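<tokenise_the_fold>
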Amino acid sequence: MKQWAVVFFEQEASVRIGLALGNQVMDVSAVVADVCGQADADPRFHCFEHWSDCLARFQRLAFSGSASLDGLRLLPPLHPFGSMYCAGANYRSHVLEMARVNQQEPDEDPKLSGQKPWHFIKPSRVCAVGHEAVVRRPALSQRVDWEAELAVIIGKKAERVSLDEALRFVAGYACANDFSARDLSRRPQVQPGSPFRFDWLAHKCFTGSSPVGPSLVPASLVPDPQALGIRLSVNGQIKQDANTSDMIFSVAEQISQLSSVLTLYPGDVVLTGTPAGVGSATQTFLQAGDRVCVDIDGLGVLTTTMT
């Protein structure tokens, strides 16, 4: 069987789960209901809680998709009420880029100084949207930026997992975009140097700020998450073009560190950082009507339109 993926979509006012191969989709919502012992208005809740069993059933199915993905409203492939953990400054190229923009000497490699990965949190219910979503720019922002990222969807409860075991807790991978309202990141009425100067909520957590999709590619079909080409274009013009090998902290390192601080649950998402090429570097920001595409090797293309 060729590479397939799991999609979540809306049909006749209900959430459905499908297996996608090319442009065809096979509805497997009944399979999920059978595995979980109950049908649900939103089967994503139980699908992630029983991910290993659902995946085993998916792998045994003979693909017989007859419906087209065209016209379906795809939903982000994650738990609708889960958490999104977003890595900060995790590509070497991006760290160097932002040092040049700020006319500063680049920071020392954090690994060499014994630092650990760090993340901020987004609520998926508000921020996560699916493929072909239309995202409204925040009313007070004129500087909305793009950030192509590899999304890692957690497949089972993770607490204090070791580096060697970390990838066993991954359900799959997807494309993501961490939109950022750069001009809302600091509160102008607060003095520079104050710990209350920064506003991560307005900067990162506006509605629709984290498109994820178009599908979830099972982890077993991604041999090495640290060897994926990652690109982003705006209206067809390439802005970011890198490889996940440039991450400072790997996917496994991020999962291990996060799980040492808190419990990761099935359907949670880790956004793993963005490479060089963000709009801030050239003072170029998104305008109404812009189409932004994130393309990661083997994971498809995630498209978003700004309005």
